Amino acid sequence: MMFVLDAVSKAYGSTVALHPLSLAVARGETLAVVGPSGAGKTTLLHLLGGVTQPSAGAVWIAGRPLASLPPGRELARLVGVMHQQLDLVPHLAAVHNVLAGRLGEWRLLRSLVSLVAPREIERALAALERVGIRDKLYERTARLSGGEQQRVALARLLVQDPAAIVADEPVASLDPARAEDLLQLLTGIARDDGKTLVASLHSIQLARRYFARIVGLRRGRLAFDLPAAAVSQAHVDRLYDLDERADDLATAAAR
Amino acid sequence: MTWPPRQRASATPRRRPLDGRGVLTLLLGGAFAWSLATVPWGPDLVHPGGERAIAQLLAAALRPELSPPFLALALEASWRTAAYAVAGMTVAVAIGLPLGVVASGALARGALSRLGAVAATRGLLALLRAIHELVWAWLFVAALGLSPLAAILALGLPYAGVLGRIYAGLLGDVPEAPLRALRASGASEWQVLLYGRLPQALPDLLSYTFYRFECAIRSAAILSFVGLGGLGYQMQLALDDLRYGELWTLLACLVALVVAVDLWSGEVRRRLVA
Q: Which of A119, B55, B107, B221 shows the smallest number of beta carbons within 10 Å?
């Protein structure tokens, strides 16, 4: 198993983001997490990515308890996280943002030299080639378009080469055509490299088309956990139920 | 929970007539009014020859000293002042940057070691800049004699204190999210400094360093009053001999130096942003 969550819950102060939830994700599986805003998708992904620790319960990543994996090289080899805001350094050239994925493996001197004369440039080139922006190697990241920056973030993950990729709303800011391109790219990489992929999405259609398994979250609870083909319109309707959506709005407003 | 939420924020807050700020304003205003009363208003306020001296000084602005030998002297003095400023800034950056990095707490992982490192370096930086460059100059001239080294250290140490303090703030203030992402890809704090903090802070670091460079030129001119040579020293000689024309030429050189640094700084920033 790549990920095992055992009765995991997460609360921020008195706000419960995730009620006790258990989930297992096999190596090589592609899993989409869907649900309305505020359902706890990001919290779940942050737990899988080792970004936050659970309030209760246990998270296991590749058979190791998350508590024993502080942010660092070991965790970086297991999971790579792509945040919604990408979190690139806009002032650096794309090549340095991509090669930042190697920092866990590099010594300090090598990282310093690389800022002047990029090391292992063939890795950066191969990664940028794969995401389709090979020609942007030395472009300042701030000058790239949103879609291109997303690809730089993906290239950084490719260079980091973790066993699993966790992507939080990877297509939230893209138009429909570009969203399909990116998901194709992302799931293609997972398939070709045998990586586990967990991504949160708003669109059920996209989730059904590109992922093998779909988990529905609703107000911090597991609504369903099914093979993509088994997710019916009824499931979706219940997930976004209008009545209770009014409740969601009220709780969101109260926050 | 109620919906819509109560609109507490939009109610106009009533201002109390006399809060702490009001009292302070009154006190400061009173002190100013009182200080006016202590001025001995009358014909002796400006000393007798003063008006004539000012008139001569202003008249001299129209005919600055432009004789070739004096221009050569002014050029040499400018060169010396600029050289002191450059050398002093080099010392200041060389000391201020490492101290600033440590004082930002960027390299310490544990809360306790961070507190210790930050407190120690902040204290050292405060000590360096609490003493004015003129006082440092007296100290170094006493210790080393009238040597260029004394001027450079006198300029470099207090400037290191100021630069380090500002660098620490700028390095500590960069957006955190990219730093977290770097740590998540396994980067150490040193690597986070190189790939996250320094690049994000670089435009501000450069702007501020150039601004301090301008200040260093002014300070270097003043330091030369101590007897270290340069524009300030020449100004003092010109004033002592009432050669106001020379004074204006020297002032123009000083302005030219500062403007040159400003243009250079603008050019560097333009290239960095482009």
A: B55
Which helix (H) or strand (E) is B134 found in, with range?
helix B133-144
Nearest residue of B to residue A49 by CA position?
B184
Give the rounded distance of the alpha carbon of A93 from its chain centre.
Answer: 23
Q: Which chain A positions have a beta carbon within 8 Å of B190's beta carbon?
A: 108
CA gap B256, A134 in Å, rounded: 47
Listing DSSP states for A119-183 in one string gives: SSHHHHHHHHHHHT-GGGTTSBGGGS-HHHHHHHHHHHHHHH--SEEEESSTTTTS-HHHHHHHH
Domains of chain A in sequence order: 1-62+164-255 (3.40.50.300), 87-162 (no CATH)
CA–CA min distance A65, chain B (Å):
17
Contact status, residue A84 vs residue A114, Cβ threshold 8 Å: no
Residue A80 forms contact with B (CB below 8 Å): yes
- Domains annotated on chain B, with CATH: 66-273 (1.10.3720.10)
Tell me which chain B residue has its CA closest to the CA of residue A160: B185
- Among all residues of chain B, which has the CA nearest to that of A106? B187
Would you write out chain A's pLDDT as a tens digit for each of its 255 residues?
999 999 999 999 889 999 999 999 999 999 999 999 889 999 999 999 998 999 999 999 999 999 898 888 899 999 999 988 888 999 999 999 999 999 999 999 999 999 999 999 999 999 999 999 999 999 999 999 888 999 999 999 999 999 999 999 998 888 888 899 999 999 999 999 999 999 999 889 999 999 999 999 999 999 999 999 998 888 888 888 765 555 555 556 555
B177 CB neighbours in chain A (<8 A) are 83, 85, 87
- CA dist A88 and B182 (Å) reads 9
